[in-house]
Amino acid sequence: MNIFLILSVLVLIAISIWQITKIFELSQAKKVNTQVADDEDNNLNGKLMFIFLIFIYGITIFSFWSYGDVLLPDAASEHGSDYDNLMWISFAIIFFVQTITQALLHYFSYKYRGAKGKKALFYADNDKLEMLWTIIPVITLAGLILYGLYTWTDIMTVEENDEALVVELYAQQFNWKARYAGEDGVLGDANVRFLQDFDGRNLVGIDATDPNGFDDVVVQELHLPVGREVIFKMRSQDVLHSAYMPHFRAQMNCVPGMITEFAFTPNKTTEEMRMDSDVMAKVKKINSIRAEKSKELVASGDVALDPYEFDFLLLCNKICGASHYNMQMKIIVESEKEFENWMSSQQTFAEVIQ
Amino acid sequence: MSTAAVHTEEDHGHHHKETFVTKYIFSQDHKMISKQYLITGLFMGIIGIAMSLLFRLQLAWPEQPFGIFEVLLGKWAPDGVMDPNVYLALVTIHGTIMVFFVLTAGLSGTFSNLLIPLQIGARDMASGLLNMISYWMFFLSSVIMVISLFVEAGPAAAGWTIYPPLSALPQAQPGSGTGMTLWLVSMAIFIASSLLGSLNYIVTVINLRTKGMSMTRLPLTIWAFFVTAIIGVVSFPVLLSAALLLIMDRSFGTSFFLSDIFIQGEVLHYQGGSPVLYEHLFWFLGHPEVYIVLLPALGITSEIIATNARKPIFGYRAMVASILAIAFLSTIVWGHHMFISGMNPFLGSVFTFTTLLIAIPSAVKAFNYITTLWKGNLQLNPAMLFSIGLVSTFITGGLTGIILGDSTLDINVHDTYFVVAHFHLVMGISALYGLFAGVYHWFPKMYGRMMNKNLGYVHFWVTAVCAYGVFFPMHFIGMAGLPRRYYTNTAFPYFDDLADINVLITVFALVAGAAQLVFLYNFIHSMFYGKEAEQNPWRSNTLEWTAPVEHMHGNWPGKIPHVHRWAYDYSKPGQEDDFVPQHIPLKEGEEELQH
Complex ipTM above 0.90? Predict the structure, then answer.
């Protein structure tokens, strides 16, 4: 019945467009109807092109004005500030080029709109001009490539060292687990074959014959000490996932059958982040939205939403199935001392399987 | 070459006996096949766009019941609320249909078929039979793809890139059962169709050009179709091999892409495969595919901008060179989709380098289009508006490619809505504009009638405003850190402030969808009731406008016109008219531009 309704509405719309265009054409009977643009069309659409340029600028300014505050706050990792710098330099270049080229394109479309009797300039080639707009992108891009590659190598070169904290991020449909290497600083061997050992208490499949694994600690909430390098080893037990930690400018896929790596040094604690002015403004805005929504919910007899407090996030960023959108883990960055305290209250693998 | 030349000189104008079936269904005539491609592509486009509107509703008003969901999705939307698996299926099939069925077959298939023989001066494609088979394989693959929407557990839902293991294991999600099998079968047939088509285009362009039509006199449309076909022949077979290996893993227990998997309480037997291998194979086609979609649109734009600016295209040689450079580079940049896939970071460096290089020929093309407009006498027909619109979205979308192509910056925006905004502008919207521009421009050639220009203007302006309205704010959602392919962002209070933007985007998307109905109406109505077309309504130089309006086998009655000049002698000094078609001999003392 509904389909029938929708179809009849569509048919009615089609008939009305038909009738309106017919009336429109009949009312201009004296003009020759060729359906080719005439001076009037050129004039109107040329002017619209100019207005459209203003629209493009307008929507750019509008977006920055009203959505500027949804962007990620400053990075909370050491390499993150390099990342942010490169991002803003690239953006500056992009905005410059975008502003100029869109202006030329739409202004020319307006300025040179056709008219009867006008003749276009026969201008087929100019090697110097073409050279110019080949060379300028070459130089700009060469700069960006060099800067980018330098930063990339810096970020991606992971050197094992005693200082660093080694953490395994373990992905499965649809949750995250983290495994710390323990006192020896070495993660025990692991494989999905061992997942069913010890009545399912072996959550990430640690090989019980490898002594390195006994002091490993498996948790469901990620704690990191501030100012210390963390080397992440990613694993997945079923499908592809991606460990995305946007506030640290960090991401790496988790691939079944192989171990991937990413390392960074967090340089702001969760508490410090909560005091950041950008973050505070964002949290305030979110809470006012939530308060609004709570009112509606309460009115319809539901429970109100909890107020929101900032926390670092680990999200899944590779499509992994139905609950992909809700595969998350809380990250807490704290002082070395708080971290040690927390760690000492966790059970090691040896304790878990006893 | 000599036999081909003799062949083209023959008079094919005599009447063939035709039945309804050979004329309208199993036709070997390139013009009819081109119309078949267009209609099939538009039909698939309606499905693809409708799907995007459905999931936009879910994104703007997450988990709200909608009557339309109940009607269209039935048990997949209990009480009118969309199921998360269905959401993933919708984005998957939307992507597949738009990229392959609409923008590859619908765009390249339509216009390569229509224009290659007509613009190079050939009676038909090199092999009409292969051409017909190519279309019917495309048709078959479309039918299978549509059938896959109706299987019990739903169609494929692993994203249009169908990365294993998600796509390989029916335990991983409902869409990886029969739906995925049909997806793979459909795509395998599609690839075969595309290869047959491409081979035909290449052979035709190389062998069947009329006398005087040297490669350096080819219209840029033909250059674009020709090079696109070459990219297709080089890269599509690799996707076929990926699809076949995936079928083996799914159905015959091999381990090409799978290893060490524990799912649904069970350790699977797969050992030694790697999903990263699949990613390499997929993107070896996947990236060139972007240019398979885009180059024909740019070719169409070049032709339409020159014709309607009444000016030669600026920098013909540079345009050809940049098409070739883009084609070459497009085959060695696929790794930029995999910076954080776990492959060696050094490979990431190499792919960053090649990827950013591709910005150079792209920039040259954009600047040349802008210079072509300069001091022109712009005839702002709907086709011209869409071509200018294409250049605009190509620039806006292309520029953010500088961020995504940089391995460092990709770390944090990879797979977020920033990517969605980027590729929709640079290849989705741009290529769709190319398709629309082509339809408005060559409609008189295809159907012998004109489309209504006023409806065309309405269609363009509403679409243009909405395209920016949808995709410009979307960059911000991505920069806020929201991953794509999320059923809803309400699981994260952190993203609660994105709700307004999502509503705005959906409203623009719905209006844009409605504007396409205006086009559809204009298209169908003009087919039967449009004003009858003159032979050369746009006063264009290319050869297709020397053929009679009424379609005939062999394209021209009598001899095929010979070519004496390039396609861009618009407003040439010393000429009476502001255009000189390619078949007009040089006047005494007239110099041909040497290209």
Answer: yes
